[in-house]
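Follow-up to my post from last week.
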Amino acid sequence: MNVDERREQLLELALELFAERTFEEISIDEIAQTAGISKGLLYHYFPGKRAFYVAAVRHAAEQLLSETTGKVEAARDEEVEQGELLRVGLSAYLDFIEKRATTFIFLMRGGMAGDPEVRAAVDSTRQAFIEVMLEGSADGDDPRARTAVKGLIGFIEEASLDWLGHQDFPRDELANLVVRVGLATASAFA
Amino acid sequence: MNVDERREQLLELALELFAERTFEEISIDEIAQTAGISKGLLYHYFPGKRAFYVAAVRHAAEQLLSETTGKVEAARDEEVEQGELLRVGLSAYLDFIEKRATTFIFLMRGGMAGDPEVRAAVDSTRQAFIEVMLEGSADGDDPRARTAVKGLIGFIEEASLDWLGHQDFPRDELANLVVRVGLATASAFA
DNA sequence: GGGGCTATTGAATCGAAGTCAATAGCCCGC
DNA sequence: GCGGGCTATTGACTTCGATTCAATAGCCCC
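User reply:
Got it. Predicted complex:
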């Protein structure tokens, strides 16, 4: 099998496995066996178990990002107002987490969140996502804005995870909630 | 050394070590050596490395909780209004994270966030903290309220972490931001 | 049809977690 | 003061899983 195909196959497998169980609970042997290859081959594609995990996180992050930013940028080209931009971003975000729930959960809750590389990957995704939604805002490099945005990301992630786990009210209401909070956040330091 | 003292000593050590490096990066041998005891003794106090880590998380969570809820309850006895209660809670929270930054970081970012027991410990702390601040609110068991509160917790945690890392504007402004967002959240589904 | 490249394997190594039988210190009744 | 028995403590042993590596298999190009 071709290099890119195999890498892709292994990364997709990683998303499934690591969404269910933690890093340590899954042995290299199990990964290899499930993938139908030998342990040694895994090391041919990734330098180690940890690196494999990090690659999976990056893979998931890229998926999330590529499926959300496009829609927001399209909306921005139509010069909609701030709240609407947030709403479009949210909607794309929620589309993603509904369609690829395990990927999303892996990204958010996957063990090893303490690992610097993992954190960096997740953080850069967050940053890129929020920047797309806020582009054009006049906050510049105000530290208060930075902190507020981080908080907003936290809100979105936690609320989305909770909603995803229960789904006991319409998605639009979640979007409304987030947009309200987002606008409150934006106005708080303006 | 007495049992409780030793356990306490080991847990405090765990907070320091695990705040700096991840679960896997720290070996049982290193922990034992740093504590000045043998590896075997660690197993006398904790059934395994993982259990030791979980115990440390619980320890940290208890510290956070015990140092915050008391102040909020005291304020509630004086029947202050909702926003003020939030502010008091926040203030106690920020006191804690300033004073015991490594403990807080360990609690939030400590690796193994994916571990069910760790997550349960952290979640119950979050829940207890927020319940104390919102007690008396009329949200009852509305799923929207639950999701909103989760989001708010996410906001507080992420914003606090960011602020703690930079501390480039006054603490009170952070508190103001959070209170505003908190009130916006509360009003969003009322 | 052979040389050389890459994918692939399985056995060997190595390190760290976990186990266990033995020792050391201490409190208690006598 | 002295021996029995309890708990703390140790260090060597075992085990399991990550990582390494030398060898094989398949394929492409000359």
